[in-house]
Amino acid sequence: MKHYDEIFRRRSFHIFRDAEPLTDGDIEKLEAFIKTVTPLYPDIKTETVIVPENETNCRRGGDRCILFYSEAKGDYLRNIGYIGEQIDLYLTSQNIGALWYGVGRPKEKTRNGLGFVIMIVAARVAEGAFRKDMFKAKRKPLCDIWSGETLGVGEIARFSPSAVNSQPWAVENAEGKLKVYRNNRPGVRGLLPVPLVSYFNRIDMGIFLCILETCLEREGYSFARELLSDTEDFKGEFVPAAVYAYSR
Ligand SMILES: Cc1cc2nc3c(=O)[nH]c(=O)nc-3n(C[C@H](O)[C@H](O)[C@H](O)COP(=O)(O)O)c2cc1C
């Protein structure tokens, strides 16, 4: 996993101002990058497709939409979050602005038997349009989402993007293991209906795992990852998502 530095620069382009279209070269390189992306679950079929923004309901001034399709099985939402965040960071590295766009809908709702999951909107923006000081971005305090040693990882990974900035993740670090949970009550219920929150928050968890792993690697940790299923309706507050046994 590359693109650690882009965690600091990335931001959501809710509206694209003074944006330019992607060049043919940008699209070719993006298509090549998409082929190198690592899924969390290689056995879940997915397709990632680039279309013009006007082939969707999105009117944010972007140029292209990157559409994610998947088999609806197992932890497919988490898988798409993990795949898409690699692309979000890649786009930033190319000075292409991006927006995870949960309310976006494409013309094609299914593709080769796979259902549409979510999209990322993209357009070329000025180099200076990216985040200059990530630490000024609004997030929950570290102590609300992380217990135990932060490893130089927690203080960065907490800036992961999430739907309506809900930040549904929580991490416990103890005895050489990071236990990662999805907070089932992230406190943004007023903004979105409950089923939508739990749909997006499962995507958010994949985004967080992608950024968490990028940070662990940068800090020189190797790790063995155990993924825990989050497909049932869970009554408790903290739904186990993954355990990382790490060492350096
Ligand atoms: C799964 C997901 C869905 C999102 N959907 C929307 C959306 O529909 N509209 C929008 O303006 N922003 C959307 N966002 C962007 C978030 O609001 C944004 O990531 C969050 O507020 C944190 O800000 P940042 O990305 O600038 O760090 C979405 C983000 C994620 C991860």
Written account of the structure:
The chain has 2 domains: 126 residues, NADH Oxidase (3-Layer(aba) Sandwich), CATH 3.40.109.10; 110 residues, putative nitroreductase (tm1586), domain 2 (NADH Oxidase). Strands 1, 2, 3, 4 and 5 form a 5-stranded antiparallel β-sheet that branches. With 248 residues, it is α+β, with helices and mostly antiparallel strands. It contains 6 helices and 10 strands, in the order ααββαβββαβαββαββ. The protein is globular, with a radius of gyration of 17 Å. 28% of the residues lie in helices and 26% in strands. Bound molecules: flavin mononucleotide (FMN). The site of flavin mononucleotide has 18 residues, from strand 3 and helix 6.
Spell out the blueprint of helices and strands.
Layout: H1 4-9, H2 24-36, E1 46-52, E2 64-70, H3 76-93, E3 96-101, E4 110-111, E5 114-124, H4 142-145, E6 146-147, H5 154-157, E7 169-174, E8 177-183, H6 194-218, E9 222-227, E10 238-247
Parallel strand pairs: 6-7
Antiparallel strand pairs: 1-2, 2-5, 3-5, 4-5, 7-8, 8-10, 9-10
Helix pairs in contact: 3-6
In short:
This protein has 248 residues and is an alpha+beta fold. The chain has two domains: 4-129, NADH Oxidase; 138-247, putative nitroreductase (tm1586), domain 2 (NADH Oxidase), CATH 3.40.109.
Helical amount: 25-40%
**Tertiary shape:** globular
- The CATH architecture classification of the largest domain is 3-Layer(aba) Sandwich
What radius of gyration results from the CA coordinates?
17 Å
Give the end-to-end Cα distance, rounded to a whole number of Å.
17 Å
Bound molecules: flavin mononucleotide
CATH class call of the largest domain: Alpha Beta
Q: Which structural class fits the helix and strand makeup?
A: alpha+beta
**Within the CATH hierarchy, at the fold level, what is the topology of the largest domain?**
NADH Oxidase
User: Secondary-structure element sequence?
Assistant: HHEEHEEEHEHEEHEE
Going by CATH, what is the homologous superfamily of the largest domain?
Answer: NADH Oxidase
* Main sheet record: 5 strands, antiparallel
Low-confidence stretches: none
Mean pLDDT: 96
